Amino acid sequence: MKNHYPLAETITDRDEAALKFLTDIRMTYLDRPGFKLIFEFAENEFFTNKEITKTYYYQEESGYGGDFIYDHAEGDKINWKDGKDLTVRVESKKQRNKNTKQTRVVKRTVPTESFFNFFNPPKPISSDDDEEDNDEELEERLELDYHLGEDIKEKLIPRAVDWYTGEALQFEELEDEVEGEDFDDDDDDDLSEDRDDDDDDESEDEDDGTKPKQEAAECKQS
After folding, report:
1. Which of 96, 142, 213, 216 holds its CA 20 to 30 A away from the CA of 79?
2. Is 175 in a helix, a strand, or coil?
3. Residue (of 9, 38, 22) closest to 152 by Cα position
4. 3-state DSSP call for residue 159?
5. What is the pLDDT at residue 220?
């Protein structure tokens, strides 16, 4: 997964230790529009789950052109072992008693970045939420979460070995180059058309001259 850039961006150094126990990633389709990603893990020191799944749901009605429309996603709860939750970190803060002047250290857990937040996806925007800034940020998180799921389904799982070895990166770069060449070809076609137009104009100018016209050479087939 570290060879897939969008996924690699979500993996921290602490996550790598737990992901070493990842043995397989599978995908199954649902009875309703949607799919489920299944991450299988060997026994490890971080959590007790043998499988952690994430399910993506589409809306029942298709969009224009028959395309599926993303609705929401749900992930399994991870049963973390004591002190092994990678989605939080411990902060220590000193507090001083105003009366006794004694200090004490208070520890609290706060959310932190982790690949395993993938299994706790953002919730769709509520119609009651009027804060536009929050809506925009949530939209970005929802879009990123959806694209990660689609990439795992469409790219990572079908070519898992290529992604593991890094060969899939070459195919990705090649596809980008091909797409770029497609655009270049369009430009070349336009230029060719312009040249053809210029050639036509030149031919017309020559026809208007005093030189006699030359008959076209016959194309003979053997």
Report:
1. 142
2. helix
3. 38
4. coil
5. 39
Q: CA of 114: how far to CAs of 11, 126, 139, 159, 214, in Å?
A: 6, 25, 20, 24, 77
Q: What is the pLDDT of residue 202?
A: 47
Identify the CATH homologous superfamily for domain 5-82+114-125+140-170: Nucleosome assembly protein (3.30.1120.90)
pTM over 0.85: no
Q: Could you identify the residue written with the tokens 């090649």?
A: 174
pLDDT tens sequence across 121-173:
998 876 665 566 678 888 899 999 999 999 999 988 887 666 566 666 665 55
Domain ranges of the chain: 5-82+114-125+140-170
DSSP class of residue 113 equals: -
Query: Could you tell me which residues are beta bridge partners of residue 52?
Result: 39
Q: Are 78 and 119 in contact (CB under 8 A)?
A: yes
Q: What are phi and psi of 74, to 5 degrees?
A: -135, 140
What would the DSSP string read from start to end of 36-93? EEEEEE-S-SSB--SEEEEEEEE-SS--GGG---EEEEEEPPP-BPTT--TTEEEEEE
Residues 6+ apart with CB under 8 A from 70: 56, 57, 58, 59, 142, 146
Q: Report which of residues 29 and 107 the model is more confident about.
A: 29
Q: State the residue for tokens 């857990």.
A: 109
Tokens of 167: 């060969």
Residues sharing a CB contact under 8 Å with residue 53, sequence separation 6 or more, in sequence order: 36, 37, 38, 39, 75, 76
